[in-house]
Write a structure and sequence with these properties.
Chain A: Residues 293-332 form the RING-type domain. The structure holds two protein chains of two kinds. Chain A is mostly helical. Chain A has 16 helices and four strands. Chain B is α+β, with helices and mostly antiparallel strands. Chain B has helices spanning 4-18, 116-128, 138-146, 148-162; strands spanning 24-30, 33-42, 53-59, 70-73. The chains are: A mainly alpha, B alpha+beta.
């Protein structure tokens, strides 16, 4: 349908041209007057211009057929999209040069547009090389031929513009000179890309440096373009006026350059990090896990890197991703803002799921041994023993990471206050001398954050704590035993005191009664004599027998007294 | 050696052919060019797009999967998140760097972890639950919010159209 319309328009314009020429020749009969007639008549010239435009389009189609064959849909879309911008800018440029507006001038601008569109198409075509599985020789031939033709044309026009400007002074040739200079950089850019793609296509293995070359080329080209545009704008302001029509491409050139620059800087940093800081993953580890690189969806056998967030990718895939974004593809962890893992632990164990770069929260480091409680401190007293706080501060200071994550760092040192309030209920009324109990370390919120080594440290720390507690409990047991013994002693002492009191009373009774019944007193004394040797024996068992022994000693005293009295009685009786 | 983009697309194509997700068919338009795909999406059940089969075109950049593909419905669509020309506006199709609408967090954007399958599944859920906060089609967003009946009617008309049933 559209093709039909194109053909009919072309035929119509050809027909009109013939009519115009025929009419002129019919009126003037000779060649020269006819030409003059046509150039003098505006309607005739309009027809001729339209015919010229149609011819240019036809020529373009022919060239397209030669250099590109069938255009792809996206290429055509790009072409149309860019053409509109270019045409608007050309119209803007006309306003600047309205003084030397002439058919020749229009023709030159049309030529620029015409060549520009071929540059765009060449660019798209070369980009297509990356997407197509097989590239024919015809493709190579066409691209090479096109690049050579475009390059030569650009060079020629730049040279012509330069000559014209030097000999005739500043004119509209300035604009063309710059336009072609820009186009020349585009041709160069396409050529470099073409070479890179061709090399890549002929390589057996993936060429990871290609992206780096492309990135740097983009940077250099962007720089050249920016310089050209700035130069152009300065010159235009000096000779004419502000070249509004150049602003849009200049803005894009600057933006692209800035982006390329930032990309280069950030990607260099990220790639340097990757090469130096992130550990390689050894093949064994790769085989026992899901080893598909999420970027290329291919298996990882070698050359893989582990990011601080523990995600694994091909080194080459990561490199090309880092050239765009410096984040982990899976979890979007910003690589540049995350401190790299310490080199002392090149192989992070698997369980270290989260970022190992985050503070190594070691609740109980080795220096916590010093924190094993000093003797005679009272851990049950609600407020923390004063020596704990500085210790915690020390520990924090010794672990530089500790300050970064206040939630995780002080875990071991500050048990929840509820522990103490619990203790208060059992708080003995008097101080106990013994080993204070180090407060139990609260487990970190997420155990999976912690590396094996840290876990081991924590384990050791808690083991030490338990041991200290056990020692403490043993001491308590000992003290309790001792106090029980003492209590028994007191009890028995009290008993014997009572007993002694009773005995002295009974003794007194016996002395009073011995006057009456001596043999009875004798019997009593003998019985007490019998018991005394028994009690004098050192008791093999401990304190519980203390009571009887002490009472026996007091009994022997009483016996002595009684004996002496008896002797007195005997003497008195004689 | 062809580029990594091509190999990844081939891998995804294979995966989609072996394990097709329900209600989704996708593949290259022709085997010569793996960078332009066609997809058929069925309207999710229980929504106003139920029963419809919507054709769409996916165009992949040469640096795929580092950059996202573009997706465009080739049939008529009336939906808050689809431009009138059929282009789909969802966050995972936007490159991580730029934010055209200024409302998306980077966590929703494109990353190489995404895939054709995930994109198409996201589009299915987008059909079921339009996000009227970010209107690609402002008329549709307004109608979705204020006149759901009318919206459903238009959706049903489009569904019938895609199935070739006269309305």
């Amino acid at each position: 349908m559209i093709k039909m319309r194109h053909i009919s328009v072309t035929l119509l314009s050809v027909f009109l041209t013939f009519v115009v020429i025929g009419n002129a020749y019919y009126q003037k009969q000779q060649f020269y007057p006819s030409v003059v007639y046509i150039t003098k008549s505006n309607p005739s010239m309009a027809v001729i211009y339209i015919q010229a435009l149609v011819l240019v389009i036809l020529l373009g189609k022919l060239m397209r057929k030669i250099f590109f064959g069938q255009l792809r849909a996206t290429e055509f879309e790009h072409l149309v999209e860019r053409s509109w911008y270019a045409i608007t800018e050309t119209c803007l440029a006309f306003t600047v040069f309205k003084d030397d507006f002439s058919p020749k001038f229009v023709a030159l601008f049309t030529l620029v547009l015409f060549l520009k569109s071929f540059h765009w198409l060449a660019e798209d075509r070369v980009d297509f090389m990356e997407r197509s599985p097989n590239i024919s020789y015809l493709f190579h031939f066409r691209v090479l031929l096109l690049l050579v033709v475009l390059g030569l044309l650009d060079l020629h026009f730049v040279a012509a513009a330069y000559q014209s400007t030097v000999t005739k002074g500043a004119s509209v040739q300035l604009v063309f000179g710059f336009e072609y200079a820009i186009l020349l950089t585009v041709v160069f850019n396409i050529a470099v890309k073409y070479v890179l793609h061709t090399v890549d296509l002929n390589r057996e293995i993936f060429w990871e440096n290609k992206a780096v070359f492309l990135l740097y080329m983009e940077l250099v080209m962007g720089f050249i373009k920016v310089v050209l545009y700035v130069f152009f704008v300065v010159i235009m302001i000096r000779f004419y006026t502000l070249p509004l029509f150049a602003f849009r491409p200049m803005y894009y050139a600057m933006r692209n350059f800035k982006k390329a620059l930032i990309d280069v800087i950030l990607s260099r940093r990220a790639i340097r990090n990757m090469n130096t800081l992130y550990p390689d993953v050894n093949p064994e580890e790769l085989t026992d896990a899901d080893n598909v690189c999420i970027i290329c969806r291919e298996e990882m056998q070698t050359a893989s890197k582990r990011l601080p967030c523990n995600h694994i990718f091909h080194t080459s895939c990561l490199r090309s991703w880092f050239q765009r974004h410096q984040t982990c593809p899976t979890c979007r962890l910003n690589i540049l803002r995350t401190p790299a893992p310490q080199q002392t632990q090149p192989m992070q164990p698997r369980m270290n799921q989260n970022r190992p770069a985050e503070p190594r929260a070691q609740p109980m480091g080795p220096q916590d041994n010093a924190f094993i409680p000093p003797p005679f401190a009272f851990p049950w007293i609600p407020q923390q023993p004063p020596n704990v706080q500085p210790n915690a501060a020390d520990a924090a200071a010794n672990q530089p990471g500790a300050q970064q994550e206040p939630a995780a760092a002080p875990t071991g040192e500050q048990p929840p206050p509820t522990d103490f309030s619990n203790f208060q209920f059992f708080c003995p009324p008097f101080p106990f001398f013994g080993m204070p109990i180090p407060p139990p370390p609260t487990p970190p919120s997420d155990l999976s954050n912690i590396s094996e080594e840290e876990l081991r440290k924590m384990e050791q720390a808690s083991k030490e704590g338990i041991e200290a507690r056990l020692r403490c409990l043993r001491n308590i047991q000992l003290l309790l035993d001792a106090s029980v013994a003492m209590m028994q002693q007191y009890v028995s002492a009290a008993n014997t005191a009572e007993l002694a009191a009773n005995a002295s009373q009974s003794g007194a009774a016996s002395t009073s009664s011995s006057n009456v019944r001596q043999p009875g007193a004798e019997g009593a004394s003998t019985s007490s004599k019998e018991s005394s040797p028994l009690s004098a024996e050192p008791s093999p068992s401990s304190q519980p027998q203390a009571g009887p022994s002490s009472s026996s000693s007091s009994l022997s005293e009483q016996e002595d007294i009684r004996k002496r009295r008896l002797q007195k009685f005997d003497q008195a009786a004689k | 050696m062809s580029g990594s983009a091509l190999r990844r697309l081939m891998a995804e194509y294979k995966q989609l052919t072996l394990n097709p997700p329900e209600g989704i068919i996708a593949g290259p338009i022709n085997e010569e060019n793996f960078f332009e795909w066609e997809a058929l999406i069925t309207g999710p059940d229980g929504t106003c797009f139920e029963g419809g089969v919507f054709p769409a075109k996916l165009v992949f950049p040469s640096d795929y999967p580092l950059s996202p593909p573009k997706m465009q419905f080739t049939c008529e669509m009336f939906h808050p998140n689809i431009y009138t020309d059929g282009k789909v506006c969802i966050s995972i199709l936007h490159a991580a760097g730029d934010d055209p609408m200024g409302y998306e967090s980077s966590a929703e954007r494109w990353s190489p972890v995404q895939s054709v399958e995930k994109i198409l599944l996201s589009v299915v859920s987008m059909l079921a639950e339009p996000n009227d906060e970010s209107g690609a089609n402002v008329d549709a967003a307004k109608m979705w919010r204020e006149n759901r009946e009318e919206f459903n009617k238009i959706a049903q008309r489009i569904v019938r159209k895609t199935l070739g049933i006269p309305t």
